[in-house]
Every structure is written in structure tokens, then in C-alpha cells.
Amino acid sequence: MLSGHVNDLTALKSTTYEQYADNRILRGYVERTLQVCAQICLDVGGHLIAELEFRPPADSRDVLLILNEEGIISDDLLPDLTNMVGFRNLLVHDYARVDDRLVYAVLQGHVVDFGRFATSVVDFLEKAGIG
To answer: Is residue 95 predicted with pLDDT exceeding 90?
Structure first.
């Protein structure tokens, strides 16, 4: 599911800002798909934490911190994913303040972070002999 969303968003990277800003349906699709991708990462992280009996997270950002502490996601990926959780929270809870330029910048520069997350999880599971 995550890879399909990432592929869809990656295909939209060729969209110019003007095309993006002028298309309300496209803006809504991108916002919602970025939100879903971030939520998938949090859900996968939460499942890993529960199944592997790591310490319980205090909040969604703590999910990522625990994954980092346990060697699942790297130090260089942690800030990007933490920012994505903040971005997801903006989309979900403060949607009236969503800035089209910010969403477009995330589309252009940070969709790859979801793929990096997925690769990190798969690598961890393979090394641990899980799955």
C-alpha cells in the first residue's frame, strides 16, 4: 500500500507549482495521500514496537524515536520522518493553515522519505530473521 502511494506521488513530481496550485482536486489528493503515507509509517512503527515488545511510545513522534533507538531507522532519517509527523498533524488538525507551497515542497523533496522508511523496516526484519 505504501509503495503504491509513493509511486503515485512520485509521478506527480513533474507537476509545476502553478498546475498544482490551480487544481483543487490535485491539491486535495496530494494532501490526503501524504497524510496516509505518514500514518502508514506510524502504524507500521506501532505494530513493530508492540510485536517486538519495545518500550511503549508516549506519542506519535516517540514511535519514530523508539524505532531509532532500536536501530530500525537511522539517525539521518529520524529528523525527516519526525518532520513528516508534524506535517501530518498540520494536515489533520490545523488544515485551515495548510500552505500550498509547503505541501508542494514536501511533494517535491520528501516523498522519498517514505521509501527510505520502508527500506529500513524491511532491512531490519530481514536481518532479524522476522517475516
So the answer is: no
